[in-house]
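Reproducibility note. Readers wishing to regenerate the assembly model reported in the main text can use the exact inputs given here. Chain order matters: entities are listed in the order in which they were concatenated for prediction.
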Amino acid sequence: MRNYLDFEAPIKELDEQIQKLKDSAVKSGVNVDNAVAELEKALVSKTTEIYSNLDPWQKVQLSRHPDRPYALEYIEKLTEGTWVELHGDRTVKDDKAMIGGFGLLSGQSVMFIGQQKGVNTKMRQYRNFGMANPEGYRKALRLMKLAEKFNKPIVTLIDTPGAFPGLEAEERGQGEAIARNLFEMMRLKVPVICIIIGEGASGGALGIGIGDRVLMMENTWYSVISPESCSSILWRSWDHKVTAAKALKLTADDMKNNGLVDGIIREPLGGAHANHEEAAHILKSVILEEIAKLSALEQEKLVEQRITKFCAMGSFIEA
Amino acid sequence: MRNYLDFEAPIKELDEQIQKLKDSAVKSGVNVDNAVAELEKALVSKTTEIYSNLDPWQKVQLSRHPDRPYALEYIEKLTEGTWVELHGDRTVKDDKAMIGGFGLLSGQSVMFIGQQKGVNTKMRQYRNFGMANPEGYRKALRLMKLAEKFNKPIVTLIDTPGAFPGLEAEERGQGEAIARNLFEMMRLKVPVICIIIGEGASGGALGIGIGDRVLMMENTWYSVISPESCSSILWRSWDHKVTAAKALKLTADDMKNNGLVDGIIREPLGGAHANHEEAAHILKSVILEEIAKLSALEQEKLVEQRITKFCAMGSFIEA
Amino acid sequence: MSWFKRMKTGITTKNQEKKEIPEGLWYQCPECKHVVTTEQHAEHDWICEKCEHHDKINSRQYFSILFDENEYEEVAAHLISGDPLEFTDTKAYKDRIKMTINKSGLKDALRVGFGSMEGQKVVIACMDFGFIGGSMGSVVGEKFARGVDKAIAEKCPFICISKSGGARMMEAGFSLMQMAKTSAKLTQLADHHLPYISLLTDPTTGGVTASFAMLGDINIAEPKSLIGFAGPRVVKETIGKDLPQGFQSAEFVLEHGFLDYIVGRKELKAKMALSIRQMM
Amino acid sequence: MSWFKRMKTGITTKNQEKKEIPEGLWYQCPECKHVVTTEQHAEHDWICEKCEHHDKINSRQYFSILFDENEYEEVAAHLISGDPLEFTDTKAYKDRIKMTINKSGLKDALRVGFGSMEGQKVVIACMDFGFIGGSMGSVVGEKFARGVDKAIAEKCPFICISKSGGARMMEAGFSLMQMAKTSAKLTQLADHHLPYISLLTDPTTGGVTASFAMLGDINIAEPKSLIGFAGPRVVKETIGKDLPQGFQSAEFVLEHGFLDYIVGRKELKAKMALSIRQMM
Ligand SMILES: [Zn+2]
Ligand SMILES: [Zn+2]
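Running the prediction on these inputs yields the following structure tokens for the assembly.
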């Protein structure tokens, strides 16, 4: 059973019609191939139409689509049984909202790190809704340093509604943990590729988001705040989230145009949630391609370019 | 009011006689200078006699003498108002049993780190009797890395009955914290001088004890276990602590003879507790001398020598 | 002007400036209600002489306390904010900036000075809460970056005094990336083995805490400052109960291992200068 | 020899060997009391087929599981303990060593093998609890050191399987310094960017936990192993109350962030080999 967002209603309708037709054919024995083909053509064209005209708020909704693949699923599909999850920050805890470990990507060892959301009610709790505590960021950093030691590239998969704003998170230094990651990731001597696969909310996303390539999948968002929170702070009401989503320029296109991310990764027709296999396949080829390019650079050059890139971000007037 | 150990009884007696004589002179106006001088001569000779013939268990007792100066007092005397204590492990806590910070030693900036025991009942609690938790070892490491960044020598003052064996200490990885320090101290690129100023108990002591020079003050002990615990494990009773103290070869002389420490720091007559000023003075000149020697070495050489030294420790037979 | 009128002016500070710059002739301590003349208050480094309450002050005031003879050269003073997203909420960002510049006399939420402190060359960056809540936009990031460059060029330490509500939402993604940018600059400072002291003052929260404010070789704070990543209201909502007494105070943050020391403003210059001497 | 007599031999393991090497023809699981033949038990890698209880095993057994075809070259096999302190408690250390060597057939509490694991060259150091409780004396330190040297010479990973009660008191200061020595050797391994996997088994405590056992590039453990610095009895005495369920179990240590993964003995070889492939 897949889930449909409001604006996916026409898609739902066509999906159901096709299913009904097929079911009736099974019962009646009548050949419905032509009718199904017609409907499927209509489905493609409807889906294309809807997905070509998404507004920012719709992309935000898609980034949170319940059927969307999460980090672990991508990693498992990418590494085909060679992923070994590694745990723990070596100080206080193993954070279930942040996962990491080596896996082989077409034979090449890669350190994968990502925020992990839960796939059902129980797991959502277990994964703390993809909101990491400080120990999650520290685990991530430990694993990145491990990858650096053995000269392996790092891929981070970003998908978080934010760093967890809990009491213990504050006690154990959420701010320090994220800050430390920014600092240390900036000078990792191996290629770092960061991919926003869902939600890229603020410091919680950036905490594993310093890379030589920062890429956004088509139907994701990345900004300093969620549209809802922005609305509630600036307009003092939750009702302006659509406006806020637009104002924040948080889509992949906007972020790319503003030079704040390096590229956009195409999703299958109808979004990553409509075809997990293809989404993973696209992801894999992008990662392999980028690793090949980045591995060609000298380590010093790599770090220098990374620093230079982030230092160039900003818009101001020399009055 | 100073405290006297059992075997210091003759010293106590002479101290009291001298005081009584002086008191009576004040009352009576009689000149007692000659008599006092005689007694003081006797005191010196008695003290010399006692302190030349200390057995290992007596040295253990002296290392715990309640009047003995602790790390903070030494540091303050050494740095003459230029010590700035730095706090925190940047992860979970500030451990009061482990102190650290820069101070100027005759104008030269030095990172001082040490276990700190409490000077009275309340402070003993506050300092956890000089038994650090993992965060203490992590604070120490953080400060050592800070010193390394700015190319400043490190001096550690060791005085602990052991790393704290508490529940939270285990939860937060006491073993990992000490292990990490051994590993990281081994390759610090600045001179490291470790001085046992009181008790040097096992891994808790070694956790800040990896240095280019490891020195023991005269009346201290350093071993893998306290004589009491050793007695209770090997003899299954606490009664053999004197025998255990002897068997463990834990005195400065024994440790030096076995090549497990690099040198012995002389204490004032009657022990460091009898003259804090002089003890600090001696300490200061030793530290300055060692820093001068070690600073002359290249960083790589320094690290290599340190590693080689510890790798040479051991006694075995190539059968 | 009658005495009464003066007094009234003194104790009524404009909302806009959030009590950072008490005007008029009198200052009343918000904690203990003690009243002194503004001249006396300034002489006491804007600390209440009775209860030690540290009044929130601005970059001009910090510079006057820290730079020898209050002499310093301002770095990148001319930068002002662009409007990369053409952002409009209840007001256009462009207008908000213009208005704030006019009202505050500041160009943005960070000023950078180069001068000497107890005879040692030093670059000091200092945030101004009066400029859109000390929020971090592109100008803050760029000025911070140029401050670091100045310190590297002068081979001197870099000090940053933080006081911030966090991100500048009207610069959205640009604001977020200033966290990355300032951290990047600090790696360059570190490569040159130059000390960085981060002074956290009341309040330091959000993206500033999660970037340069927590990255000091030593992190220090003024007493009782509010320091955190998530604001106390958000944390309270998350946990669904009241926060413990002193939560997110400087003293709390010290106990949890993130501050090297807390220092009163009276001892600030001497102690920072000593710390710098120890690291240089 | 009657069947009864054989059975009795089988389920009565000698105290000296702490159930590491069950002799005879039958093995009874101490957890679920399930009985199998020792041959079956060995075929199951000394894991109970019913309840998955991992029997404590020795270096010979680990080597047979991990090295391809059980082929390996032993490193520094000839080292035996000196008696640097001429230590005597209820027995002279010299005699204790001699006796233990005779009884256990081991030279000391660590054996080091060099061979291949799933076709990859690897040095494996493995502790024997049967030798004075897997305590760390000079020989353990030196063999560990030579194992690291071998790995460096062969440019291959180093694996250490820990199982230890901690220090060897009869070597006092020498024992303590083996913590430093083994850590020093690991810095050399790290300089060569060769992977170090630390496998912690039941039990791993004391000085071993506070040195090489916790220093793995990845730390892994067998299920339910007791892992800690202070032993549970000491901790219990310190806090003056009962310890929580599962305290210091591998699962507990994983939750607290110190283990990368827990792995059953059946999957041990394949998973370690994969981890090594990922780091080489
Ligand atoms: Zn007041
Ligand atoms: Zn069983």
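We highlight two features of this model. Confidence is low (pLDDT under 50) at residues 1-22 of chain D. Residues 172-191 of chain D form the longest helix (20 residues).
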